[in-house]
Design goal:
heterodimer; A: about 130 residues; alpha/beta; globular; B: about 400 residues; five-stranded parallel β-sheet; four-stranded parallel β-sheet
Chain lengths: ~130, ~400
């Protein structure tokens, strides 16, 4: 599958997808020390975003979320890349300051957790192999 | 398609340093996401994300990295910190926190940011005029600037406000454009509002109903500046609103939306009930969210004069440093502190590290109730300023 989206922040990476249909609030919803999603009742509760191609519709919650992405990066627990349906300013700014490759305007319902995904953010492209 | 001027391109290419480059990346990316055609100069910036309690070590590292070669290009002021920068010890703030908070303040000062540490910059030297483009964070100040002053700003976050400061520009989208400032829903208020807590409750009712839609409010015959501060804070906390119109009170003449919603005394009473926890045991009383004005402090000082705060209760009146200095000169500070209450500058009950220190907050601020509950797990009661002070003293 090859999906075309829009570049949010540059970079080209390949890794395993972690996909949710629910929005993510990084402030209060993701532990910056461990990379785990800690929001009660969230689909990804207990799962770590570290080193994953994190796929979710859009961000929600406090603007402090940008700094949480930065903390994840500094702690070596950042997602490898972020793929959104529509990026929100908190996640967008978080990706820029943390230099996390990111793409949005992607049909994310075509992606599944565990798939091997290549993100070519410069060209806004997301592709899966196998 | 976002078009950049040569000097803006130079910033993006890193020819004006690393911090400026990062800042310009933030500005241009937001511009592209929101379909801006160009960047526009801003005349002032208000930065949020100052309390070490919210920033933590990562936020501080980011600011320190930016401070290596970043410099504010326009008047830039700062949101409240997690403590009074001078009298923090007296307020029970621990030394580790104080040291880290001071590192945050030092990083901003190194960039030439005015370390005002207040959510009411417009009261202490950052006052744009009608129609002026600014880039402000702090949702209550954003709402006040757009609505009461008639300046133009989007609801910036901490990093994007800093980015505007270091470049002197923002992307032209959202509330910078006239067509996006038009009210969408009319709210007819059929009850009389008297005090700041009433205005906070109205903000809560309208915020929850209107979400992102810009409200046009009628039926308010009188509002003080403090009432409008309280309303701005609340409507931005309980909704996503970054501006409102209030007939005959805010400056903008505008088209009136046809869709009308009625707000009754019952709506306000329901909002009040929602913020009053029945089992609250009040051990903390705080006024000054948004930061108290000198007029409010004068009133509170006179109420506290010769009185004594009850054992087991802590009282914080939070304000901006210049306002506190004036309160010292006027003798208000002594009256408040002699009664056993604290006049706390630079900080507020929403961003100070207070979790675990208290169980129940009484305040006149609907916004303060929201953060007390969510962040600090306090029970809350909302009352008038006079009732709050009466609760505090013997």
């Amino acid at each position: 599958v090859k999906l075309q989206g829009r570049k949010v922040f540059r970079g080209k990476v390949a890794g395993e997808a972690l996909v949710t249909t629910q929005d993510i609030s990084f402030y209060g919803g993701c532990d910056p020390q461990t990379g785990q999603i800690v929001e009660k009742g969230h689909e990804l509760e207990g799962k770590s975003v570290a080193g994953k191609v994190l796929v979710f519709p859009t961000g929600k919650g406090s603007t402090v979320g940008s700094y949480i992405l930065y903390a994840l990066r500094k702690n070596g627990k950042a997602p490898l890349a972020i793929v959104n349906k529509i990026v929100d300013p908190v996640v967008a700014v978080g990706c820029i300051i943390s230099e996390i490759p990111a793409v949005d305007q992607v049909q994310i319902d075509r992606l599944h957790s565990g798939q091997k995904v290549e993100v070519d953010a410069d060209h806004g492209a997301v592709s899966t192999s196998g | 398609m976002l078009e950049l001027k040569p000097e803006e391109k130079a910033m993006l290419e890193g020819r004006q340093g690393k911090a400026t480059r990062k800042a310009m990346e933030i500005i241009t990316l937001l511009g592209e996401i929101y379909g801006a055609k160009r960047l526009i100069p801003v005349s002032s910036v208000q930065i949020a994300g100052v309390s070490y309690d919210n920033l933590g070590e990562p936020g501080l590292e980011f600011l320190s990295d930016m401070a290596v070669d970043g410099k504010a290009r326009v008047l830039t002021t700062l949101n409240p910190a997690g403590m009074d920068l001078e009298e923090w010890q007296k307020h029970g703030i621990n030394a580790d926190f104080a040291r880290n908070q001071q590192r945050v303040i030092d990083a901003f000062a190194k960039m030439g940011v005015m370390t005002t540490c207040t959510c009411t910059p417009y009261l202490v030297g950052n006052l744009p005029h009608f129609g002026e483009h600014v880039a402000w964070a702090e949702s209550s100040a954003v709402c006040f600037a757009n609505s009461v002053i008639g300046a133009r700003t989007n609801r910036e976050g901490g990093p994007s406000a800093l980015a505007a400061s270091l470049t002197g520009v923002t992307a032209e989208y959202g509330l910078h454009l006239e067509e996006n400032r038009v009210p969408e829903v009319k709210y007819d208020v059929r009850t009389t509002l008297k005090t700041t807590d009433d205005f906070g409750l109205l903000g809560q009712v309208i915020g929850e109903r209107t979400k992102q839609a810009i409200p046009y409010i009628t039926g308010i015959s009188h509002a003080t500046t403090e009432d409008l501060m309280s309303f701005s804070a609340s409507v931005a906390t309980y909704g996503g609103v970054a501006m409102f119109h209030m007939e005959d009170i805010t400056p903008r003449t505008t088209t009136v939306p046809e869709k009308v919603q009625i707000i009754t005394q019952e709506d306000l009473s329901n909002a009040r009930r929602a913020l009053d926890d029945k089992d609250a045991v009040i051990d903390f009383i705080s006024i000054g969210c948004p930061h108290a004005s000198i007029d409010e402090i004068s009133h509170i000082a006179n109420m506290l004069d010769g009185k004594r705060v009850k054992k087991g209760k802590t009282v914080w009146i939070t304000t901006a440093r210049p306002t506190k200095d004036l309160a010292v000169r006027m003798g208000y500070y002594d009256k408040i502190e002699k009664a056993g209450a604290f006049l706390v500058s630079d900080a507020c009950c929403a961003v100070a590290p207070l979790k675990g220190r208290f169980t129940g907050l009484m305040t006149d601020s609907a916004k303060a109730c929201f953060y007390a509950r969510g962040k600090n797990k306090f029970k809350t009661e909302i009352r008038t300023i006079d009732e709050c002070i009466r609760e505090a003293v013997v």
